[in-house]
Specification:
This protein has helices at about 1-20, 25-45, 55-60, 65-95, 110-135, 140-155. By secondary structure, the chain is mainly alpha-helical. The longest helix is centred in the middle third of the chain and has 35 residues, at about 65-95. This is TRAP transporter small permease protein. It is a multi-pass membrane protein.
């Protein structure tokens, strides 16, 4: 939806230039939609194994060593993502409390475009926590199945 919104805004700008009118704050709204699309996609990309990982070395390790390595990385990732989630939420709250607005033609309260960023981080936080719990229960994390599929296709 966000990518379609970006396309519609850019299309409106093109048509507007042809007919001699401008779309106010089009760049701002496109940027907000891009940020929303990016952050909403983080959790899905993590679950699908799309985030960059160095599996060239990891895949050759013994299973026990790989388990501890992935467990350590998931714990660190959970800490980092939790930190980022908290401060994204805090940023939204401060923007709301201090009534911050954008500087474009159309003054938009900044908490509105910041909410998708915080929700996207929350979704990523839950995805990392889910994979950590899954590993502690003895199951493979969700991203490993997709990495193994990629490895089989390359061979």
């Amino acid at each position: 939806m966000c990518i379609i919104l970006i396309m519609l805004i850019i299309l409106a700008q093109i048509v507007g230039r042809y007919f001699g009118f401008i779309v106010p704050s089009a760049e701002d709204f496109s940027g907000y939609a891009l940020a929303a699309a990016t952050f909403f996609g983080l959790a899905y990309t993590f679950r699908e194994g799309g985030h960059i990982r160095v599996i060239l070395v990891i895949q050759r390790w013994p299973l026990r060593l790989r388990y501890y390595q992935e467990l350590t990385v998931l714990c660190l990732a959970l800490g980092l993502v939790s930190f980022m989630t908290f401060y994204c939420g805090h940023m939204v709250w401060e923007s709301y409390i201090f009534e911050e607005v954008s500087y474009g033609y159309v003054p938009v309260p900044l908490w509105i475009p910041q909410v998708p960023v915080a929700l996207g981080m929350l979704a990523l936080n839950l995805a990392v926590l889910d994979d950590l719990i899954s590993m502690l229960r003895g199951h493979a994390p969700s991203y490993r199945a997709h990495e193994d599929e990629l490895n089989l296709e390359e061979v």
